[in-house]
Amino acid sequence: MRRGVQGAAALIALCVLALTVDWGIARYKAPSDDARILALQNEVAEDASKAPVLEAEHKRITVARAARKARGNILAWVLIAACAVFITLVKQLVPAPAVARPRVAKAASGAVLPACGRNHEAAEEDSAERIAAVDAIIARAGRGRESAIPILQAIQARFHYLPDAAMKRVAETTEITPAELAGASTFYHQFRQKKAGEHVVRVCHGTACHVAGARQITEELRRALELRDGEDTDKDGLFTVDSVACIGCCSLAPVMTVDEHTVGTLTPSTARAAVECIHPKVEA
Predict the structure, then answer these.
(1) Cβ neighbours of residue 100 under 8 Å, at least 6 residues apart?
(2) Which of 102, 111, 122, 156 could form a disulfide with 116 if both were Cys (CB 3.0 to 4.6 A apart)?
(3) What is the rounded CA–CA span in Å between residue 232 and residue 195?
(4) pLDDT tens digit string along 146-157?
(5) Threshold 0.85, pTM exceeds
(6) Helix (H) or strand (E) holding 203
(7) Residue ranges of E strands in 222-264
(8) Residues 247-269: tens digit of each pLDDT
(9) Is the dihedral of CA 212, 218, 220, 221 positive or negative?
(10) φ and ψ at 254, to 5 degrees?
């Protein structure tokens, strides 16, 4: 395997060197060839008997340039093939990073509870606590219309969606109208109108992850969590599966996050394994 990598690397270096040398020679010879043709054209204008010499020179330069172009095309394809072989062999030599599995802890009752990511209280906060939290957010962000987006972001960070009661409280105690809140919250995809699960799984669907199989990862998670079309949160309210544009870990594609934990180099089975310790109905 290592010899194959070394051979591919050597071939890549040779192709790059050959292309560079060929390009340098072409750059060096082009001005002299053009000057030679111009001089012959001037001579033919004075003496028509030299026309065969001009034609022969034209033919020589044309043939040389065509050969150089063909040679460049061949070298380019060899270079592409050598790079593909090199990358494939290197991937097999370098061990894949271990899948980061969420840690779990057991409560006194024996139920499995997640020890990773954000911990949310199982019980729904009562109205007074919710209003107090919203009032604190407004006090920090401000009451002007320019504070609409920061307020919405803080509310979603606190509750993981935008509760109707929170939106109503914002409209009552700030200069922001209900229409402005509704417009901003529905325009930006980052805001959720429905309650998210206790744990949020974000699957990257950027270019690298899409090519590496992000669609299959999402489909497997949705199947395992029994999500129907149009649903993103399972019926038990434990997991929400989101598709995001980029997580910023392209070298680990395909990749996802479970709460704050990044899990990379996924397959459908390892993606399922990353959540099975939290969700009892996800089968190995």
Answers:
(1) 261, 262, 263, 264, 274
(2) 102
(3) 10
(4) 999 999 999 988
(5) no
(6) strand 199-204
(7) 239-244, 256-258, 261-263
(8) 888 888 999 988 878 888 999 98
(9) positive
(10) -75, 150
